[in-house]
Amino acid sequence: MPSVSTKPYLIRAIHEWCSDHGFTPYLVVAVRSKMQVPMEYVKNGEIVLNISYNATRNLTLGNDYVSFSARFNGVSREIVIPVGAVVSIFSRENGEGMGFEYEGVPEDLADNAPATVDGESGDGPDDEPPRPTGGGRPQLRVVK
């Protein structure tokens, strides 16, 4: 019987703990190949994402992927992250959380990655993300 990873369960548990205590859960992701993340915010091969319910829409913490939509510099983006690429999840307020080993992305998962809302994979040359106009650190904010 193949071993099942505990990583997605631990990610969900830390996310729930943060949410229950009013903390903001942040996810650190090792960005490799053609991941569906805003590449203009990747620094040193990693991206840090606010995955709180207030900052995301349709958040799914699945066994194979973390997916959600969020606004980056006012533009809504669909984010799809393989669980194997998650390096850590932690609370912004106190830094408590958990770190993980980078597991890579199995080829069968990379080939079967969920499509975006419009049905395209986001791999085309016309899918280059817009560059942020302002300097400084990227921030997610709630728009009502």
TrEMBL record:
Q: Which UniProt keywords apply?
A: Hydrolase, Protease
Q: Spell out the residue ranges making up region: Disordered.
A: 101-144
Q: Which Gene3D superfamilies match?
A: SspB-like (2.30.30.220)
Q: InterPro entries in the record, alphabetically? A: SspB, SspB-like_sf
Q: Which domain of life is it from?
A: Bacteria
BP term (GO), one:
proteolysis
Give the molecular function GO annotations.
peptidase activity
Query: What Pfam families does the database record attribute to this sequence?
Result: SspB
Q: How is this protein named in the record?
A: ClpXP protease specificity-enhancing factor
